[in-house]
Each structure stands twice: as structure tokens, then as C-alpha cells.
Amino acid sequence: MPEEKTFRSGVVPGRWPLIGHAWPLFKAPFAFLASLPQHGDLVEMRLGPTPVHVPTHPELLRRTLVDDRTFDKGGTYYDRAREMAGNGVATCTHQDHRRQRRLLQPAFAEPQLARYATVMEQQIAALTDSWGAERSFEAYPVLYGLALRIVTRTLFSTLVDEAVTDEIRHSFDVVFGNFFRQMFLPRAVNRLPLPGNRRHRAALALLRAAVERVIAESRKDEDDGNVLAALLAAHEAEGAAVVDAELRDHVVTVLAAGSETVASTLTWALYLLSEHPEVQHALQQEADARLVGPLAVWDEVPELPLTHRVITETIRLYPPGWLFTRVTATATELAGRRLAPGTTIVITPVPVHRNPAVFARPDAFDPDRWLPARAAALPRGAFAGFGAGARKCIGDAYGVGECALALASVARRWTVATVPVPDVRPVPLAAFYRPRRLFLRVKRRSAS
Ligand code: HEM
Predict the structure, then answer these.
(1) Is the CB–ligand 1 distance for residue 48 below 6 Å?
(2) Does the C-beta of 55 come closer than 6 Å to ligand 1?
(3) From the CB of 43, is ligand 1 less than 6 Å away?
(4) How confident is the model over 338-381, as pLDDT tens digits?
(5) What is the pLDDT of residue 189?
(6) CA 395 / ligand 1 centre spacing (Å)
(7) For residue 231, what are the domain limits?
(8) Which pLDDT value is given to residue 182?
(9) CB 9 within 8 A of CB 335
(10) Cα–Cα distance between 273 and 44 in angstroms, integer?
(11) Does the pLDDT of residue 133 top 90, yes or no?
């Protein structure tokens, strides 16, 4: 790794008036982000009208993630996210974070995860049973439905009905659909009474109302195997009053952070497997050898090393959280550049994950690069799919476990193919990276 003084900083050329670098980010985001290291280890560009700095070197990316006191949550992404999730654990500043995280942590401890796994297993069984011998479907909406039903039912209780899930889904569609567009526009434009802005605000109000209703219902529920119950117990143990608005922020945060991320990972994983039959075959062999029943169960998840490597490699290639922001809380220096307080930093794993100096053949799908001996040779900070430091994803084991259950269960009984012709260019400015059009065909394996 270079010494501090040898880190290079630079400026990204090709900036447009007013919209900055929004055009390449809109048109071919990963190609653009992957090209950034040629301009420096820390590069300056424009996110719409806002000047931002982007660490493209693994060590600098790691530092900005780990030093969450200096590089605090804020900037254009988290300003938008706060409108939705208030002061929840993902959006709050450093000052409130340790308390928020302490309260939420027990809900993500291993014994709780094992309880949520029952919901995951049931939902995966319901989906795959509906396939019969063969089925074609559009991947993302189906897998998003699966992930949202799982996170809703593990959050509140298994009793949450389909109508509530639909309401939440509709709100997220509008809010996340607008998210990045709003990031590239001046704040004043987002406040105008335009139809898009009105729809955005209405969707936020609907989301809050749906969540508040379910919280009120769930408080009466005796079942304690859910996130909300664990959260209430953590507040009680601390002797803290449970304010409904605070609970709502936690709940919206977990719903938002735990659905599209998993749906996107599963979508890309199944796409990559369909494009790489040799890896799919190896995954089927692993499932055949390790699963006792027709579907995977939670206890079997640690016994599926190739499935885990496929998930990590999928997130390396297509990190669902592909671009978010921080803001400097104090004056600081990075790569020899002085950054004034209030400077926006863009956090994106793409320039590191797709850099040939970090990963050999960075665009190739090679799950075995995560075999322990090969992974140990990677530089520190090479993988940032879940963030790092105190703000690292709290749901990583939940999300990976859910993906592993789904992928191993599919591999055990089905062969997945892409129905021609997919359009795997990303949905423009989607908050979570996903393909525009991807239909999959699942066909029951003869031996299953
Ligand atoms: C494969 C799936 C997932 C991926 C790739 C992912 C990725 C991430 C990333 C990159 C961050 C850090 C954001 C930042 O530093 O600004 C994060 C934070 C977070 N994630 Fe995930 N996530 C996934 C699944 C989940 C799930 C399933 C949940 C909950 C059920 C969840 C809940 C959270 C929360 C609450 C935070 C904020 C943590 C904090 O600031 O303390 N995530 N996630």
C-alpha cells in the first residue's frame, strides 16, 4: 500500500454544467465508476451541482468508512434517506449511532436469526412450490416480493397480512424510484409542488402510516420472535421510554435496508449462475451433498462454502449499495487533500471491486477467488459490499443467510436459465443496482 504522501488525488474530466457527472452515472454507472482510479486514489467530481470526493483506493475507502466520527452520515444520499427513515440506525449521525445500534443489535444476534429463519424457509418453500415442473418469471419483482415478505414478517410478526406488504411495496417503489433523481437536483427543485414531488411525499406519508399501524398492532402480539419485540425488550432493559416515532424510524430502516439489497443479490446471483453452467453445476452438487431435505434449513447454511463464495462474488460484481455519501464533520486531510468541514464524500465499492490492480480479471465471475488462501492475499479494504467499521451492515448475516437458503434450495431442485434476451443494463438511477429486464426459466431437475 502506498504511504500517505504517495496517494494521488485528481479531478474527473467531462463535467457538464449544472448536472456535473450525472450523465455517465445515468448511462453506464459501473463503467464510469470503474474508470475513476485512472484519475487518482481520491478523485473530485460533481454529483449534480454538488462537488464531491470519491476514494477509489481500497485503503482510502476503508479509512472513510471506519472513521465515522470524521466522515459522518450525511450528504446528498443520507439527506434524502433521512426524509424516509428519520433518525434510524442507518441514517443517524455519529452522535446518536452507538445508542441506536446497541438497541437494534440484539434483534440481529444469532439466536434471533435462527428464529427468523423459520419465516425465510417457509417463504422460500411457498415460492418454489408455486413453480411446479417449470416456470418463467421476471426475476427482480418476484425476488423482491420474497425478500419483502420475509423482512416484514420477521420484523413484526408472522401475522402481517398481504395488504400491508403491498402498501409498503408501493411506497418504496415511488420513494426509491425518485431517490437518485432527487440527489442530482438542487434541493429547491425537490421542494416545488411538482407532480413527482407530490407523489414522493404522499408515498412517504403512506409508508409511515402503514408502519405505525402495524407497530400498534404488534405491540399487542405475544410472539417475541421478531425484530420489533427484540427492539422493545432492548428499550425496556435500558429503562428507556419507547417513543413510537423512534420505533417507526427503526422499522422503516430495516424494511428499506433489508429488502431490495437481498432481492438484488439474489437476482444477480441467479443471472450469473445461468450464465456460468459450470458454477451452477458445482452449486447443485454442493446442495445435493449437504442438504438433508428438499430445501435448505438454517443449520445447514454454514455447511455451504461454495454458496457463500457465490454470494460474495455476486456482491463484489454487483454491490446492491453501489453509491452513498458521507460528510466531513471537521476539517481533515485525505490523500494529501485538505477537506473543509461539510465536504461530501461519495462512498462506492465499484472502483475498488472492479479494479484490476485489486482483483485479477475484475469483470470475471470467479467465486473461487474467495477461497480462503486467495482471499487472504487481497489488500485490506478490497471488499466493501457491506461497508466497514461501526456502520457496517447490521443485517449481513441475516442477508447472507437468507440468500444462502434461497440459492441452495433452488440449486437442490431446479436448473436456472436466462430466457433470451435479457437487458442487464441497470435501471437508470435506481437506488439499488438491478437489471432492467431479466426473465429466468427454472426447470425441475430430473433427480429431485
Ligand atoms: C445482501 C444484502 C445486503 C447488502 C449488500 C447490504 C449492504 C449494506 C451496506 C453497504 C451498508 C452500509 C451503508 C453505509 O455505510 O452507509 C449497510 C448498512 C445497513 N444494513 Fe445492510 N445490506 C444487506 C442486507 C441487509 C439486511 C437483510 C438488513 C436487515 C434486515 C440490513 C440492514 C442494514 C442496516 C440497519 C444498516 C445500517 C447499519 C448502521 O449504520 O449501523 N442490511 N448494508
Answers:
(1) no
(2) no
(3) no
(4) 999 999 999 999 999 999 999 999 999 999 999 999 999 999 99
(5) 72
(6) 6
(7) 4-444
(8) 74
(9) yes
(10) 36
(11) yes
Long-range contacts of 228-231 (CB under 8 A, 24+ apart): 228/155, 228/156, 228/157, 230/106, 230/107, 230/112, 231/103, 231/104, 231/107
Q: Is 320 in the pocket of ligand 1 (CB under 6 A)?
A: yes
| 3-state per-residue secondary structure call for the chain | CCCHHHCCEEECCCCECCCECHHHHHHCHHHHHHHHHHHCCEEEEEECCEEEEEECCHHHHHHHHHCCCCEEECHHHHHHHHHHHCCCCCCCCHHHHHHHHHHHHHHHCHHHHHHHHHHHHHHHHHHHHCCCCEEEEEHHHHHHHHHHHHHHHHHCCCCCCHHHHHHHHHHHHHHHHHHHHHHCCCHHHHHCCCHHHHHHHHHHHHHHHHHHHHHHHHHCCCCCCCHHHHHHHHHHHHCCCCCHHHHHHHHHHHHHHHHHHHHHHHHHHHHHHHHCHHHHHHHHHHHHHHCCCCCCCHHHHHHCHHHHHHHHHHHHHCCCCCCEEEEECCCEEECCEEECCCCEEEECCHHHHCCCCCCCCCCCCCHHHHCHHHHHCCCCCCCCCCCCHHHCCCCHHHHHHHHHHHHHHHHHHEEEEECCCCEEEECCCCCCCCEEECEEEEEECCCC
At 36, list the grid cell: 475513476
Residue for grid cell 465499492 = 349
Assess whether pLDDT exceeds 80 at residue 243. Answer: no
Q: Which residues contact 261 (CB under 8 A, 6 or more apart)?
A: 147, 320, 321, 395, 399, 432
Task: Write down the pLDDT at residue 47.
Answer: 86
Q: Determine whether the shortest distance from the Cβ of 398 to ligand 1 is under 6 A.
A: yes
Q: pLDDT tens digit string along 167-223?
A: 888 998 888 877 777 777 767 777 777 788 888 889 999 998 888 888 887 777 777
Looking at the 3D structure of the chain, how many domains does it have?
Answer: 1
Query: Where residue 412 sits, what CATH number does that domain have?
Result: 1.10.630.10
Q: How far is the CA of 396 from the centre of ligand 1 (A)?
A: 7
Q: Is the pLDDT of residue 234 over 90?
A: no
Instruction: Assess whether pLDDT exceeds 90 at residue 242.
Output: no
